[in-house]
Amino acid sequence: MPGTLTLISVIVIGYAVLVTLLAVVVALRRGERPSWLDSMVWMLEVLLVVRALAGLGTVFGDDPPSSVSTHVGYLVSSVCVLPIAMKSVEGDRAVWSSAVIAVAALAVTVIAVRVQMTVS
Amino acid sequence: MTDTAPRSGPHKVLLAFYALFTLAAGARAAVQLATDAGAAPVAYTLSAVAAVTYALGWYAIREASVGHTGFASVMLWVELGGVLTVGTLSLVQRHWFPDASVWSDYGIGYGFVPAVLPVAGLLWLRSQRRARGI
Question: What pTM did the predictor assign?
Answer without folding.
Answer: 0.87
